[in-house]
């Protein structure tokens, strides 16, 4: 958990870097916070590439505003404040990022992107809450909040900031922050029914045996074109989305597989599969590769991110992997 309390960086070193006027020295000190700031921006924006851009914008703003750092707060707190406001400025300019209407749970979120686990913070304190607050369901739920409610929720409930620090960062009153947090929590409970909502208490981020087994079976079913096995892995209240195509479907297992087949999958030309087990957003995932007739290699097709409940797939979110080298998947098999 990141908080606004004790310093985790040498404040004297940071102040010296600020006063030196040396951009290389300043960058070296601030760079250590890149991963956690990028995750913070991702929680705000739900898009990996935008989070990268806003993290870079944060460092640029920090350099330009370096003389405003007076040591009254930890360097990381100062950077989080800048990152939060960079994200809010970004959202203010993007009409396509307005909060998702409550009646459309996650069907209109074409900008959602998966987050590669290798880019998550390595800090063990961040890791104990990372899975709960990086899973796709949480990221999507946050997008239902107006930008400032979104910022308040992340600062208060995810990062554990006191109300006074959040208010200062957002230039709001403590009463406004408290009210915004209450409204945000109501929305999050509506969007995450039955999910764990206490994000500040420790939670494992390791995959369970069930999750690993389901991913292995999911890949095996594809490689064998075993539709019965694939059907058996899905719950009968499956939530399925294939981004960037809009629309989340609530479907039975049989209807889901029938729909994939009617769309051309598992038919000639789309029946020679290989898969690689991986994780994104600290969730089990399968990177699927397809070999076209006459092609000696299997080419990336999609990555399926799975939410597993009681040994079955309850949610399947597919992403086109084209143009996403940051997922660090093999270019061919």
UniProtKB/TrEMBL annotation:
Gene3D superfamilies: 1.10.1740.10, 3.10.450.50, Winged helix-like DNA-binding domain superfamily/Winged helix DNA-binding domain (1.10.10.10). This is RNA polymerase ECF-type sigma factor. One of its GO terms (molecular function) is DNA binding. Belongs to the sigma-70 factor family. ECF subfamily. Pfam families: Sigma70_r2, Sigma70_r4_2. It comes from the Bacteria. InterPro entries: NTF2-like_dom_sf, RNA_pol_sigma-70-like, RNA_pol_sigma-70_dom, RNA_pol_sigma-G_actinobac, RNA_pol_sigma70_r2, RNA_pol_sigma70_r4_t2, RNA_pol_sigma_r2, RNA_pol_sigma_r3/r4-like. Keywords: Sigma factor, Transcription, Transcription regulation. The keyword Transcription applies. Interacts transiently with the RNA polymerase catalytic core formed by RpoA, RpoB, RpoC and RpoZ (2 alpha, 1 beta, 1 beta' and 1 omega subunit) to form the RNA polymerase holoenzyme that can initiate transcription. PANTHER family: ECF RNA POLYMERASE SIGMA FACTOR SIGG, RNA POLYMERASE ECF-TYPE SIGMA FACTO. One of its GO terms (biological process) is DNA-templated transcription initiation. Residues 31-95 form the RNA polymerase sigma-70 region domain.
